[in-house]
Amino acid sequence: MQQSVEALVKVLETYRGRDKIIRTACYGSQLVGGVLSRKEEADVSSQRLGKSLLLFSAQLSHCRTVLRLFDDLSMLAYSQGYGFGGREEDAGVRWISVLNNVADQLYYPCEHIAWAADAELIKAKSDKWWLLCTLLWGTSLLLGILRSLRVLLLLKKKLRKRERDGGGSSHSQLRRQMRGELLSIIGGMADLSNAIHWMPPGFLWAGRFPNWLVGLMGTVSSVVGLIQMSSNGDSDHTESIES
């Protein structure tokens, strides 16, 4: 028990770790709140609790938006460090990653403007800026999924080659990397489904998700992020946007 508490405290002491915990709580609250609110047979107290959880989820989401006001420089440092991906062996992975970094970098100023417009700090309509944020987020997610699929394909080829050559010492490491990419695909698909839901009505299933389903998809991707952070032991690494 004490070790679990210490591990949680260690995660909360880092910005990325705290953000992942807040994100998980945000979507988890939306999931439970959405389930309680939609039950027609539920009593008044359950429906009231459901509405309170949805309000709590909205406040946590707003909290994360405010905290992201300070993410531009860390994202810029990560993009500059990656550059044009000269260390990548595969050209496909390299250019997908570069485009992914561009989408992520553009996301932050657009979100800042949308937030400032909602807060009436500037005179602007926030709707078009939030739509642009959703487009950039969806683009980033789609590129991330494509990148993971490409990396997964390359890892499978490398694994088959080493199996033919009889080199079994690194099989476990390759399989661990493949599981990591599979988790990334699952998390990215869950987030992408929500990104499409937040697009204007008429685009695929935009606007059709109930609160509980949005919460479920977000919770799945958040849990995937926590698992990856735990296995990597690097909670300060700047990766794709996690709205």
UniProtKB/TrEMBL annotation:
Pfam families cross-referenced by the UniProt entry: PEX11
Location of this chain's protein in the cell: Peroxisome membrane
Single GO BP term: peroxisome fission
Keyword flag Cytoplasm: no
Coarse class of the protein's main subcellular location: membrane
Annotated signal peptide: none
Transmembrane segments: 129-155
Any single Gene Ontology cellular-component annotation: peroxisomal membrane
Keywords of this entry: Membrane, Peroxisome, Transmembrane, Transmembrane helix
UniProt name for this protein: Peroxisomal membrane protein 11C
Lineage: Eukaryota, Metazoa, Chordata, Craniata, Vertebrata
